[in-house]
Design brief:
six-stranded mixed β-sheet, 10 strands, 226 residues, alpha/beta, four-stranded mixed β-sheet
Amino acid sequence: MAKVLKQQESLDSAFKKRAGLGLGFVGTGVVLIIFTQVVIVGAILIILGIALIYDGHKFWIGAVGESRVIEVLSNFPDDWYVFNDMMVRGSQIDHIVICPMGIYTIETKNYQGTIYGNAEKREWSQVIDHYESQFYNPVKQGTRHSVALSKYLKEGGFNNVWVNTIVVFAEPSVKLKVYSPKVPVIYLSELCGFFNSQKQIMSPNECTKITKHIHKLIHANDTYKS
């Protein structure tokens, strides 16, 4: 089993905060309407509460997707190291993998429907039942995260390492119609096959040294939060 050195936390926390606050607003609104007849204020609180719960639900969906990826990554050999939900130089990275095949950041999306995108375009499209919405290009997002991690490693003396980027769509029903010749954009079901197809480029000792340096960020981020 791979060594999972940090679990996902921020999405779960965001969901719980919004859902809890939303339920509180809804409950207060119901009490005002039923017991005090303050209908307008009560209705406003209920609407705000529902909006907060809906917003929290989006974080919950993201957490589910990342949990699916973590489950796959954790089943790799024990000389693999995995960090989840890492803050590196201002970038919130879903997953960092250090293994004999190299260093990777993984940007996880848990979208449904059909995804249309080009690696060079700023916006991608999600289409569900003929309804189209836009979201920021995850290839650009993931590449920015890899650059942040690369800069951090260079500051630690790791000058000759390359940080790879992968974008993974975790929802099983999603359909990808994406052009990205340099950065892999794959289904979760393809993640194992992708890693198994890569050649070994790092020794166990190199993996351990890089992992120890990245591990320092966990304590640094905890200190910053406190």
